[in-house]
């Protein structure tokens, strides 16, 4: 559907309208094109209908009044963008969408902070896979006298009595941990979203 | 003495107005669903209906996130309808599940109302 702009008689109204709609676009630009257009058109329609029904004689006064009642896009659309992003994230399994959704929902509760930290941990495992390729001897799961010491990169290795136990299994192991964490986070996120609805 | 009375009066005022806004916020979804029971409306019209029926002034922009939530809950559905003006309207209506849910909500509300009436007397 083509997006039709509202036509105004006064230059000032045009500028105020364009500025407001630009802000709407900016707030929603992390969403899919379809969601962006949907929100844009709905706000556009709201302003248009409100102008039609307005009893205020002066166009610019009417428009300013409508925009004030709608509220600032940054504030009013925030929960809508956060919701839509979460919907998108849990349906696509795309890590970028998930990270963005978590960032947007960060202020919505403590649980999202835990999700965020788990996600960072997950990225840590991915990092270790690359670290193992670049520094095979310093990266691994190190034990000393049978006790866990380091999972990751360690400069002091054999001379400190550290033994790496995973060897060539390190990369596959990290890969499966990453996969496991990823499924776990996405699954719990879905459960959380489901609980939010209740 | 006068200061104390004034203080109590103003504290009460804020308490009551906070309480009122909580009630409004809590019942807004319920009101919207009931308005949509009879007819389908587009966003701006819906706001006018809310105002007409309940005299509740809502921050207009907040309606849209709320409608999106109701949509993901499968209680309402929406469709874009082209207009001669060139600016289409997004109409909202109740889904079958929305209608069923509303029956339960209305029943609960009636019971609650009866109970409250008894307490108030």
Automatic annotation (TrEMBL), chain A:
Domain of life of the organism encoding this protein: Bacteria
TM helices/strands, residue ranges: 110-134, 169-189
UniProt entry keywords in alphabetical sequence: Membrane, Transmembrane, Transmembrane helix
Pfam short name (any one): HAAS
The protein, known as: DUF1700 domain-containing protein
Organism: Pedobacter gandavensis
Lineage: Bacteria, Pseudomonadati, Bacteroidota, Sphingobacteriia, Sphingobacteriales
């Amino acid at each position: 559907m083509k997006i039709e702009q509202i036509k105004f008689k006064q230059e000032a109204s045009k500028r105020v309208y364009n500025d407001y709609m630009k802000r709407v676009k900016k707030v929603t630009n992390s969403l899919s094109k379809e969601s962006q257009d949907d929100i844009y058109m709905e706000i556009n329609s709201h302003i248009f209908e409100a102008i039609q029904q307005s009893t205020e004689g002066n166009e610019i006064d009417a428009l300013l009044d409508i925009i004030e009642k709608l509220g600032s896009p940054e504030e009013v659309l925030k929960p809508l963008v956060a919701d839509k992003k979460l919907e998108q994230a849990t349906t696509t399994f795309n890590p970028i969408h998930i990270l963005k959704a978590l960032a947007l929902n960060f202020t919505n509760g403590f649980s999202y902070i835990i999700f965020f930290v788990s996600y960072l941990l997950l990225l840590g495992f991915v990092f270790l896979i690359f670290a193992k390729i670049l520094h095979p001897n310093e990266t691994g799961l190190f034990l000393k006298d049978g006790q866990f010491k380091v999972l990751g990169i360690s400069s002091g290795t054999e001379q400190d009595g550290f033994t790496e136990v995973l060897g060539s299994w390190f990369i596959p192991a990290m890969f499966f941990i990453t996969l496991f964490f990823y499924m776990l986070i996405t699954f719990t996120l879905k459960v959380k979203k489901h609980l939010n609805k209740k | 003495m006068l200061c104390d009375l004034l203080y109590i009066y103003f504290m009460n005022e804020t308490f009551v107005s906070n309480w009122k806004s909580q009630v409004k916020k809590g019942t807004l979804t319920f009101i919207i669903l009931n308005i949509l029971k009879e007819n389908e409306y587009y966003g701006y019209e819906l706001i006018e209906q809310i105002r007409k029926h309940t005299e509740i002034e809502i921050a207009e922009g907040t309606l849209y996130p709320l409608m999106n939530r109701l949509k993901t809950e499968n209680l309402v559905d929406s469709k874009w309808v082209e207009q001669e003006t060139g600016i289409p309207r997004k109409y909202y209506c109740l889904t079958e599940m929305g209608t069923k849910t509303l029956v339960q909500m209305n029943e609960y509300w009636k019971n609650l109302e009866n109970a409250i009436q008894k307490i108030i007397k």
